[in-house]
Design goal:
Helix 2 crosses helix 13 (about 385-405), helix 7 packs across helix 8 and helix 12 (about 370-385) packs across helix 13 (about 385-405). By secondary structure, the chain is α/β, with parallel strands linked by helices. The protein contains 13 helices and 13 strands. Helices cover about 35% and strands about 10% of the residues. The longest helix is centred in the last third of the chain and has 20 residues, at about 385-405. An 8-stranded parallel sheet has the order 12-9-7-6-3-2-1-13. The two termini are about 15 Å apart. It has a single domain (about 65-405), classed as TIM Barrel (Alpha-Beta Barrel). This is Glycoside hydrolase family 3 protein. Belongs to the glycosyl hydrolase 3 family. Pfam families: Glyco_hydro_3. InterPro entries: Glyco_hydro_3_N (IPR001764), NagZ_Beta-hexosaminidase (IPR050226). One of its GO terms (molecular function) is hydrolase activity.
């Protein structure tokens, strides 16, 4: 979701009084000299001031996506800025109109298609067209889906290929995977989906069956950290070839926990992942080499990095390492903030904690959470100027992505 500083230059003149000649005597005053003028309160202009102002060169207009985003967000109300920080869910079988008020009046800027959409490309396109009709012409929606492959492919039916699991994709060489991802991405684009919440870059350590969120479901590429990075880069590039943005996940990795953060708060503390380890190194490679549009934050907690906060609420991980050390400047999204892993946090504080930590786009998997998360963000932004500034910066990053993908104009 820039402040301009004007530089004022004041020029002062010097008056010389009591000037003497070379012999030390004061020169005689001419008989015809005008009487001495008393000083007045009128300001005196520098003789060069007009020339200086006439020759001043205006600052060039920044028409990069980021520059356009800054101007767009500066023109928004606070409510509009906060709306850009929300990804609201639309479940399979629900009418798009259930989100009309949130999009049109609460300015929600992104939608997650969730559940089993089995009607094919045409069915999904009808829903996405309806959703886009609720958004302003110059600020269209980011429409996302979890289209990983295997057990996690939410969009199916005529026009959508049956995607192999990520482990199956890991058996492809990188060039073949990039070509395949471009084909899958073209199907998403035809359906009106502009962001794929994939690929998974997590590296499973230990027993795959004991790693409920990733290994047990074959959601990773099934390789070591470097091989996973190679394949994730190919997947992101293939999606981009089709005009679809990608979100890598679940930073900094869910491969070393036993519990699935969607459904439990137990077994979700990672006791092995370290900032200098290969698991995070895989994410860093993908970020620097493939430049994904989004990075999705895990809801697990990492003992060796920040033992006090889940990754999605950790300024150490988001602002400190992901942005500061790694240099990532894109959109940071969350795993679903309606998940069981963070159910101990009041609903109206979930978005606040995420944005405070440096996050941008709150992904929400339960429609009943959207209103309290919106209200919590807005209440905090109205009361806290520093938080409002963070929310504004988050909105700028989201809008930058929209300009990059042709959704904003």
């Amino acid at each position: 979701m820039a402040l301009c500083a004007a530089l004022a230059v004041t020029m002062a003149g010097c008056a010389q009084a009591g000037q003497t000649t070379a012999d030390g005597n004061k020169p005689a005053q001419s008989a015809t000299q005008s009487p001495r003028q008393e000083p007045t309160n009128q300001p005196q202009s520098s003789p060069n001031r007009d020339d200086h102002e006439a020759n001043a060169v205006p600052e060039p207009r920044d028409d990069s996506p980021a520059g356009k985003a800054k101007r767009a967000v500066a023109a928004m109300s606070l409510e509009e800025r906060i709306g850009q920080l929300i990804m609201a869910p639309l479940f399979a079988g629900s009418a798009p109109s259930v989100l009309q008020d949130l999009i049109a009046n609460r300015h929600v800027g992104s939608v997650l298609l969730i559940g089993n959409w089995n009607g094919g490309v045409a069915s999904v396109r009808a829903a996405t067209d309806a959703l886009q009709s609720y958004a302003p012409d110059g600020n269209r929606l980011l429409i996302t889906a979890d289209q990983e492959g295997g057990l996690v492919q939410h969009l199916q039916g005529p026009g959508f290929d049956a995607m192999p699991s990520a482990v199956g994709q890991g058996l492809m060489d990188a060039a073949t995977l990039r070509s395949s991802a471009a084909a899958w991405g073209a199907q998403l684009a035809q359906a009106g989906v502009n962001v794929d919440l994939a690929p998974v870059v997590d590296t499973v350590v230990g027993d795959r069956a004991a790693n409920a969120p990733i290994g047990a479901l074959d959601r990773d590429f099934g390789l070591d950290a470097n091989g996973n990075a190679d394949h994730a880069i190919a997947f992101v590039q293939g999606m981009r070839d089709a005009g679809v943005a990608a979100s890598i996940k679940h930073y900094p990795g869910l491969g070393a926990v036993s519990g699935n953060t969607d459904f439990t708060a137990d077994g979700i503390v990672d006791a092995t992942t370290a900032l200098n380890g290969p698991e995070i190194g895989a994410f860093t490679r993908v970020i620097r080499e493939a430049r994904p549009a989004m990075v999705m934050m895990s809801l697990a907690t990492y003992q060796h990095i920040d033992a006090e906060h889940p990754a999605a609420f950790s300024p150490t991980i988001i602002d400190g390492y992901l942005r500061g050390t790694t240099g990532y400047e894109g959109v940071v999204t969350s795993d679903s903030l309606s998940a069981t892993a963070v159910s101990g946090v009041p609903a109206d504080q979930l978005g606040v904690r995420f944005v405070e930590a440096g996050g941008d786009l709150a992904c929400i998997g339960d429609l009943t959470y959207v209103q309290p998360i919106l209200d919590g963000l807005l209440t905090r932004a109205r009361a806290d100027a520093a938080f409002a500034a963070k929310a504004t910066r988050a909105a700028e990053r989201v809008m930058t992505l929209k300009y990059e993908t042709g959704l904003a104009a």
